[in-house]
Design goal:
Blueprint (H helix, E strand, L loop, with lengths): L2 H9 L10 H27 L3 H16 L4 H16 L5 H30 L1
Helix pairs in contact: 2-3, 2-5, 3-4, 4-5
Length: 123
């Protein structure tokens, strides 16, 4: 999903009342930006020692937090890591790790920009 399309999805109105609450969305973005590095570190540790349950839990949590923003690529990458942990199938873990890092970095950049814009408008 292109950055501009993601931002449109992030800010557009919908039938869900929470989606129309920019303050709540931005609070969730702040939480994501705080938690994402910790969860990625947990995933990396689990990956290095091939701890499937730990990888599954951290990936599942990261998947859920990225899903709040309809970030489909980030969600899919976290789901892939969750499946690796669940199945203890470490064959493609390096490629999956690179992908989840890339997508979470991209999502973090987008959310940081959105927060900056929102904070500028609040002043």
């Amino acid at each position: 999903m292109q950055d501009t399309q993601f931002l449109q999805n992030y800010t557009q109105e919908s039938d869900n009342p929470l989606d129309n609450d920019l303050e709540l969305q931005n609070e969730l973005a702040e939480m994501f930006l705080e938690e994402c590095p910790r969860l990625l570190a947990e995933m990396h540790r689990a990956m290095l020692i091939q701890d499937g349950p730990a990888l599954r839990i951290a990936s599942h949590t990261l998947k859920g937090t990225s899903g709040v923003f309809d970030a489909q690529a980030a969600y899919a990458c976290a789901f892939k890591m969750e499946c690796i942990g669940k199945d203890n199938d470490w064959g493609n873990v390096d490629a999956a790790w690179d992908a989840v890092n890339s997508e979470m970095s991209r999502l973090s950049t987008i959310l940081s920009r959105q927060l900056s814009r929102w904070n500028s408008n609040q002043q």
